[in-house]
Amino acid sequence: MPASVPWTTSTSGRKGDEAIYPFSPTVAECDRLEGQHAAIVELMGIVTHANVSPNPTLLIDLGCGTGCVTTYLGATYPTATTIGVDHAPISPDRARRLNVEFIQGDIQRLNPTLHPSLAAGTADLAFGRLLALGITDWPGLVTTTASLVKPGGHVELQELLWRVYDSDGIRIDDSMEWMVALRAGMLHKGLDPDAALKMQQRMEDVGLVDVRCWTYKWTVGPWLANEEPRTRRMGKFNGVEMVGPLSEILEGTMDDESRRLRLQQEMREDLRARGAGEQGGVFWEFKVTMGRKAEDRAKRRKH
Q1: What residues in the chain have per-residue pLDDT under 50?
Q2: C-alpha span between 191 and 104 (Å, rounded)
Q3: Considering Cα of 86, then 239, then 157, then 48, what sign does the dihedral take?
Q4: Is 114 helix (H, G, I), strand (E, B) or coil?
């Protein structure tokens, strides 16, 4: 797992500021993100839900991580300039396509000073995934993101809901002390563990239309794979990789070492990976929200 870093959120991702994301971009962390991306794609059966126009000109990947989605978009839509933005530098190996660029910066401060292409009303798609651990102003982010897309363009945000459910879909995290502490720690740092639930309303509040939502089961262990085969890879991945990052988050939210160690052990027990068909499995919810910027009425009348 990546080395632990001080988890202090900031509205700035500029060099010299403290990290706005709790994991260092080590080789191990990059490998984890690559595996996570593959599991998400298999879970959904698709990378993005947006119906991008046939010949787009600008696609933006917010909080692009290792650049998996950025490079996918660049390869899928060769007519578009595709820009990935992240607070950490991206490996230059990712920018092998002429139409793909990566810039280091704060996705909460997107504007042309960060990159000339980041002007209002220019993007065909603004996409973001798993941003909850780095965003302290969701209304501001959704407003800015919506302003970037052109009429007819889409905003798509894919986010984990920080709640735990049993195999019957009953919420159980309020009885897990470690999860209560984790959520409280996020709130204390200005983060919103329930941001995924509020995304539809936030998109509608900024004027996006045709807002749609999809929900997927983010299983821990492949216990659901016999009934829902698309969860198999995600379940296997989370059964191995989920406890480590969550342990780091807990470590960054409390000073009492004895309590932290106890809660981390309880977490490992609660998140024990169940095999296919095994009882007692749990899941989180992975929610996708997509909205479209309405086209100008005058322009529509001309057509």
Answers
A1: 1-19, 298, 301, 303
A2: 21
A3: positive
A4: coil
SS3 for 183? helix
SS3 5: coil
Q: Cα separation of 79 and 124, whole Å?
A: 12
Looking at residue 42, its pLDDT comes to 98
Q: 43-76 in b/e burial notation, b at 16+ Cβ within 10 A?
A: bbeebbbbebbeebebbbbbbbbbbbbbbbbbee
Give the pair of three-digit tokens for residue 11.
């509205």
Q: What global pTM score does this model have?
A: 0.90
The phi, psi pair for 95, rounded to 5°, reads -90, 55
Distances (CA, A) of 62 to 66, 74, 88, 279: 11, 14, 12, 38
130 in Cβ contact with 158 (< 8 Å): yes
Check the CA dihedral 104-110-116-121 and report its sign: positive
Q: What integer pLDDT is reported at residue 93 of this predicted model?
A: 66
Residue 98, pLDDT score: 84
Quick one: tokens of 43? 């879970």
User: What is the model's pLDDT at position 20?
Assistant: 56
